[in-house]
Every structure is written in structure tokens, then in C-alpha cells.
Design a protein that fits this description.
This protein is an alpha/beta fold. The chain has one domain: Metallo-dependent phosphatases (Purple Acid Phosphatase, chain A, domain 2, 4-Layer Sandwich). The chain is built from six helices and 14 strands. Helix 2 links the parallel strand 3 and strand 4. The longest helix is centred in the first third of the chain and has 19 residues. The chain is globular. The two termini are about 30 Å apart.
Length: about 270
């Protein structure tokens, strides 16, 4: 079983990269399932309903979110009709949408789970992800050995503690939210593949996919600015995970494919 995980898609440059790089990556890697973090796809924060459908049509099987998943009203109002979009599973059951799903990969089922950390988030608060994982993983492993978790968290220490807790319970845990790829992909002793942060899909020459000038002004003036996306050096980043028949990770590696910047007139079309 081979899983392609696309790192957090940030703004229109990120969507452009998916459109232009995903076909060649799929042709070369031949993944059985494509998962993407889309928490920043619309305006760098959140996911709009139109973008969700567009990304799905481009070949992404499951879209996961994070702390910004409820930022776009049109998605929230129609969340229950989009089974391929996940919000964190450790949010209250009254929240719209769902936090995990079974996806079809050939003749196999793969469980995909979204979980939110508890450190560093001011606008949204979730239940304990450590407790949530224990109960969810046991239920899912009763139906499939393949369980992939997107852990959207702000603290490296929380992510790394979570990896040890998850080892042997799930196939892989992919860290997200930092939007900067870490070089610590590993396979833990009981067969769980991990990486602290898979990075971002969008502008590399930027601050987390966003215009550097605006972020500098925020730090200088303390006045929040609406973040503007950057088009500098767009690239698709992600992770390839190879699983054995028992659901253990036998290979995990980062990928990065640069994308040519589109003409100015095409930048508003995504």
C-alpha cells in the first residue's frame, strides 16, 4: 500500500501546484490513495466549499483540516454533504462534519483520521488528542490495518510525544500546521511512520506561504494584517508512505516538486 500525503495547501499558489504537479507525481509514484491537508487552501486560512470540490476533482481522495477548518461559512453550512472533507475528530460531536473516514484504495480500506493538538491555538479548543487516538484507533483497526493520522498541532514537543503514544496503534502520523518541512521522518519501533511537519504546498519564497512584507509589518507594528499569499517559487511538498500488509510503515520519504509560476492573468483563476 502506497499513500501520497500532500502537505498543507496554502492559497491559490498551493492549488496551482496541485493542478500542475499532482498528475506527474501520481504517474511516477502510482499511489493507492491521495490525502491532502487543505486547512489553508482558501485565502491562506480555511477551506471554501468550491475549493474543496475543485481539489477533489483534481485527484485528491481525502481532504483534512485543522484549526482553520470552520473559517469559511459555505463549507460549514454544507459540511455534512462533503464526506471526503474531515475536521478534527477530537472536536465536540455537535460540530458539523466528521473527523475520520474509510477511503477505498483498490480493494482495501484505509482509515484517515484528523486530530488537533491542544497547544498554541487561541480560537479553537479540542478534547485531548491522546485520549481520542486510543479509542478511535482501536475501533478502526478492527476493520482495517491501514490507519493514517494527520496531527495538526503547534508544538513540536506535543507532536513528538504523540508519536510515541501512537506507535503501534496506527500506520502513520503526519504532523501539520507548521508549514515548514522537518527532516525527521522516521519509522518507530512498532512500525508507525512519523514526521513532525510535512511542510506546505504553495510558495516556498514566503512566510508559511504568505507575503513576507505583510508579516514583517505585523511584527514591527503589532497591527494584525490580512495575510496575502505569495507566488514566489511555488512547489508541491508532501510525503510518500509505504505500508506492508499488516499496516506497518516500511518506508517514509519527503517529496518536493517545483512548479513554474503562472502568468499574471492566470493567478486569479484558481
Amino acid at each position: 500500500m502506497k499513500i501520497l500525503y500532500i502537505s498543507e495547501i496554502v492559497g491559490k499558489p498551493g492549488i496551482w501546484c496541485v493542478k500542475n504537479a499532482l498528475p506527474s507525481i501520481k504517474a511516477a509514484e502510482k499511489p493507492d490513495l491521495v490525502i491532502a491537508n487543505a486547512d489553508g487552501a482558501t485565502g491562506c486560512f480555511g477551506l471554501g466549499r468550491q475549493h474543496a470540490g475543485y481539489l477533489r476533482k483534481m485527484g485528491i481522495d481525502v481532504l483534512v483540516g485543522g484549526d482553520s477548518i470552520f473559517y469559511k461559512k459555505d463549507l460549514v453550512e454544507g459540511f455534512d454533504s462533503l464526506p471526503y472533507v474531515l475536521r478534527p475528530a477530537n472536536l465536540p460531536p455537535e460540530s458539523p462534519g466528521r473527523g475520520w473516514k474509510f477511503a477505498t484504495a483498490g480493494k482495501e480500506k484505509v482509515a484517515v483520521v484528523s486530530l488537533l493538538g491542544r497547544v498554541g491555538f487561541g480560537r479553537i479548543h479540542a478534547d485531548n488528542p491522546f485520549t481520542a487516538l486510543s479509542s478511535i484507533a482501536e475501533r478502526l483497526r478492527a476493520e482495517t490495518p491501514y490507519v493514517i493520522v494527520d496531527f495538526h498541532a503547534g508544538a513540536t514537543a506535543e507532536k513528538q510525544a504523540f508519536f510515541f503514544h501512537a506507535d503501534g496503534k496506527v500506520s502513520a502520523v503526519i504532523g501539520s500546521h507548521g508549514r515548514v518541512p522537518t527532516a525527521d521522518e522516521a519509522i518507530f519501533p512498532k512500525g508507525t511512520g512519523v514526521i513532525t511537519d510535512a511542510g506546505r504546498t504553495g510558495s516556498v519564497d514566503s512566510v508559511g506561504g504568505m507575503d513576507a512584507g505583510g508579516k514583517i509589518r505585523e511584527f514591527l507594528t503589532r497591527v494584525p494584517e490580512w495575510s496575502r499569499e505569495s507566488w514566489g517559487k511555488p512547489a508541491l511538498e508532501g510525503v510518500i508512505i509505504d505500508l506492508d500488509r499488516g499496516g506497518k510503515t516500511v518506508g517514509i520519504r519527503r517529496i518536493k516538486q517545483e512548479c513554474a509560476e503562472p502568468p499574471q492573468n492566470d493567478r486569479e483563476k484558481e
